[in-house]
Amino acid sequence: MKTVDPHHHHDAVAKRLKRAEGHLRSILHMMDAHRPCLELAQQLHAVEKAVSQAKKVLIQDHIDHCLQDAVGDLGRDQQRAIDEFKAITRYL
Fold this sequence. Notes:
about 90 residues
């Protein structure tokens, strides 16, 4: 498999995932300490959101860079369609 240079936001994604990893470890300690289920659920929700946001940033970065590189120079109407696609994916 070909190795490519990391995209613009890969460092930010890695940072988010490392923070989520630490947070997940703290949840395991909370479980060992028999913390209330509500607290555990709240913390798990926070980790889930952090991972989801990291995934979203990664995908957006890929779309913003790889898609444009793949299609190359386009006419105005074609570029507008690509730009609209990039914009609408932000709502996923």
